[in-house]
Amino acid sequence: MDLTDLLKAQLSPEHFLAQSRPDERAVAPDGAVDTTTLAAHDFDVDNRTGFMPPQPPLARLPIEYEPWETVLEGAIAQHLQVGDKPGLTPLEAAESAAWRAWVAEMPLLPTDGLRRSELLLRRAHQVLAWTLHFYVHTIPADEPILIPAPLGLPLLRVSAVLQLPPVLTYSDTVLYNWAPADPALPIPAANNLRSNLLFTGTRDEEEFYLTSARMELRGVEALELMRDTLDEIFVGDELAHKRIAAYMRRLALVIKELETTLLSVRDGCAPAVFFHEARPWMRGADSGAGKRPWVFDGLDSAPDLEPPTELSGPSAGQSALIHALDVFLGLARETHDASLAGSAAAAADGRAAFLRRMQQYMPRHHRRFLDHLAADPRPLRALVVRARDDGELTAAYNAAVRAMKELRDVHMVIVTMYIIQPARRAEREAREAREARGEMEVEEAAPLRGTGGTELAQFLKGVRDRTARGLLPVAGGQ
Asked: Which terminus of the chain, N or C, has less C-beta within 10 A?
């Protein structure tokens, strides 16, 4: 049994990943969305685990790709430090430089052998993207960022097949970055997860990733409620309306539990550790001050490749679960509006709304799921608007929308605790240190950005407020 057969043997025969890979160049005519099927395997959505895979992701590539695996292991084992770390010692800088030289001296490996399996491609993207972030962020702040061909070109090729940006994504840090804490227990379960890869090796970083993983698993019931609701919309009678109202009340409770799960990150992840130790590694090319361009060496001799245009880092905005809730509830027209580009620079460049752009960072099957959901000819919100005299239905729908708004309130609280407050504290301490040394004041700091490149406070408030606009008037004032 070869590796491909072994991988398929771990999956049920009807699962998407057990089937032959389709030609990634094949698309529907004129970009049309095919709505002939909503089978879960078409979208790599499992009825037990949602957007998380039901089996542990591949933990190592075949032997021919061992140079990639060992160089990443070396970065983790050496506890490398970011190049713009305050107080970086000469020894730490030298260790990072030696490791980067190791990366540059790797052989330039072909990627054709990875195409036989989606699982191999996922692992390759994960290993190379993690290595990319180690490489980029250990470079001293005053040096240009030039990514060596043995790292950059394979990452670009794998990313092109997967239709993903060549950078670390939410799927690399959350969806495909777990293993069972106890292999003897059922998997994956919220209380039986550990992370495979970490930049810092700290529990804080791991808890940050696992909190999102637990939210994905809790969101499985939300996906079930969406499916049941769409079935009832098809029926459309008075009894169906009552069932939909019941589903909406239940969905509101599930979203509240997502809120509780998000807040639980405080139990294992200290804000200072996350902000100063873990978060710097996750930054994309459009995050932080300076924003040196990431240049991929060797592109001029690789006619099959193009310079990447999307290099934001991993972001909660790349979770297909939250996007699915927006689409299902009919909120996406507000929350994905082009006026919410994420930053003034992005808006000036005519870039798409931030949440719309983040869909490019999702596994392409999950993007297709969102496309199919958005293309449903019988959307929920339209039904509720038509049935405006049904106060019970509208009130139940509003409960779900209100729960989404409150989830975004909590997200703003977490972002304030873990990013905005530590950033302000660090900025104040740096200013006081400059004043103590008698140095001149530097120019005013740029707006604080998320790892995905957003101007955080303004963007999150905008999305939260747009979500609240989704509430509908209720007949009889219920």
From this structure: N
Q: Is 411 annotated as a binding residue?
A: yes
Smallest Cα–Cα separation from 335: which of 362, 376, 374? 374
CATH architecture of 215-290+316-435+447-470: Up-down Bundle (1.20)
pLDDT at 102: 98
- Cα separation values, 41 from 108, 138, 365, 366, 369, Å: 34, 40, 9, 11, 10
Residue 60, token pair as written in the block: 């190592």
389-409 pLDDT tens trace = 999 999 999 999 999 999 999
Which pTM was predicted?
Answer: 0.87
Q: Token pair for residue 319? A: 């979770």
Q: How many CB atoms lie within 10 A of CB 372?
A: 18
The residue extents of the domains of the chain are 215-290+316-435+447-470
Q: Which residues contact 312 (CB under 8 A, 6 or more apart)?
A: 165, 167, 284, 285, 286, 287, 357, 358, 361, 451, 452, 453
- The CA distance from 478 to 474, in Å, is 6
What are the tens digits of pLDDT across the range 173-218? Answer: 999 999 999 998 877 899 999 999 999 999 999 999 999 999 999 9
Q: Which two tokens stand for residue 194?
A: 């550990």
The encoded tokens of residue 308 equal: 């990447």
Using alpha carbons, list the distances in angstroms from residue 351 to 151, 238, 309, 325, 377.
Answer: 28, 44, 11, 23, 28
